[in-house]
Design a protein that fits this description.
This protein is 39% helix and 22% strand. The protein has 394 residues and is an alpha+beta fold. The strands form seven sheets. Strands 13-20-17-18-15 form a five-stranded mixed sheet. Strand 17 and strand 18 form a beta hairpin. Helix 5 packs antiparallel against helix 10 and helix 5 packs parallel to helix 11.
């Protein structure tokens, strides 16, 4: 019953709450400890990139924080509200990464869902100060108020939400495995191909455009409008922006169909994906359509070409891809028999990947709609097993 839920603050349910160092450590190329900030907190995990700075053991000992298996990390400077669970990674924290250790008598997973909830994320945005770089203080973090149910209810709520997360993660792993198998099979055919052709002889390069941003009749309805930051892998299903049919009629983009391959050409350069739904796109991308070439092969040929373009740009600023770049690229074209043999195996694999992507979109929407209702006590979780099975079987 909601009557036994208590009003608490984040400070009440944590043993310690602090942030990383307010300075710069001494970097070491051979160091085994990563120096991370808020932008390294991605989808619940600490993401350590090739470009992440490293420090040695001496610097780690000097700047280490008391992280444990009860630690949750939240970005509080610059990009606000990224969340990750600490899983023993060898890291030291910068000042934009806040950490807190959840008390033993509280469900760590419940508090994790507290800080990914819309209520907490809105709180950060409303409390932030700074014009250029937004910042939330540790005092404001500690004072965040929320309702805390008894421990058994905490566990029941997280059981539902974690089941949805687990299914999403399983689908992602299946997709990664299917993609790896398909690419390995393609590479085997590609390496034995004997016909070399120009990229643009096999693939048509098409452009995009943006309707007038100040014209309200052109925006926020109906047609997904792709920009480089929307890129998914291997499929893109949703976009931050949408345009109307009128907006589509007043820009230089077509409505590109499912399985159109696109590559980001400016800004974030070199991301390759396929549209999982029909979309328009802006001028920072190219849409690629096969000239008698199956779109799945267009996608894989494009991955090859972009990888070579990146390699050529090694040591230089790779800030754009032009149509001339593609025209200068050669690809090894599979024979008709090899293409048919490859597609016979790969098409069902990519259809399964797309199906999993669509299911994950549904599961994420379901999780995000349930989250605030569960965390506020709006949903009765008495019949926890039936509730969980019902949501997962939808």
């Amino acid at each position: 019953m909601k009557s036994d839920w208590k009003q608490v603050t984040l400070n009440d349910v944590t043993d310690i709450l602090g942030d990383g160092i307010h300075g710069t450590p001494e970097y070491s190329q051979s160091g085994e400890y990563a120096f991370i900030n808020g932008n390294n907190l991605v989808n619940g995990q600490i993401q350590i990139k090739d470009s992440t700075k490293r420090v040695d053991l001496e610097q780690f000992i000097e700047y280490k924080k008391p992280l444990s298996n009860r630690t949750i990390l939240v970005s509080i400077n610059g990009t606000l509200g990224n969340v990750a669970i600490y899983r023993g990674e060898k890291v030291i924290l910068g000042k934009s990464a806040c950490y807190f250790n959840v008390s033993e008598n509280i469900s760590k997973d419940f508090i994790r869902f507290v800080v990914v909830s819309p209520a907490f994320q809105n709180y950060l945005q409303n409390q932030a100060t700074g014009t250029t770089i937004k910042n939330v203080s540790l005092k404001q973090m500690r004072e965040y108020p929320f309702l805390l149910p008894p421990i058994e209810t905490q566990k029941s709520i997280t059981e539902i939400l974690l089941a949805l997360n687990d299914k999403i993660e399983l689908n992602q792993k299946i997709n990664e495995n299917l993609e790896q198998q398909a690419i390995a099979l393609f590479n085997n055919f590609y390496d034995h191909a004997e016909t070399e052709v120009s990229f643009t002889d096999a693939i048509q390069i098409l452009g995009g455009g943006t309707p007038k941003t100040g014209e309200s009749l052109y925006w926020n309805s109906g047609v997904p409008f792709f920009t480089p930051k929307d890129a998914g892998y291997p499929y893109t299903l949703t976009t931050e922006k949408t345009i109307t049919e009128e907006g589509l009629a007043h820009c230089n983009s077509r409505l590109y169909p499912i399985n159109t391959v696109f590559v980001t050409a400016r800004g974030t350069v070199g991301k390759v994906s396929m549209f999982g739904v029909s979309m328009a796109m802006n001028q920072s991308c190219y849409a690629l359509a096969g000239k008698g070439t199956h779109q799945l092969l267009v996608y894989l040929y494009t991955l090859k070409a972009v990888e070579r373009l990146k390699h050529k740009a090694s040591g230089a600023v790779f800030d754009a891809i032009t149509t001339r770049d593609f025209a200068s690229e050669q690809i090894m074209k599979l024979s008709n028999d090899d293409a048919e043999a490859f597609l016979c195996v790969a098409e069902p694999m990519y259809q399964a990947i797309l199906n999993n992507c669509v299911e994950n979109l549904r599961l994420a929407a379901l999780r995000d709609s349930l989250l605030p209702k569960l965390m506020s006590g709006e949903i009765d979780i008495t019949n926890i097993s039936g509730l969980r099975e019902g949501y997962l079987d939808e």
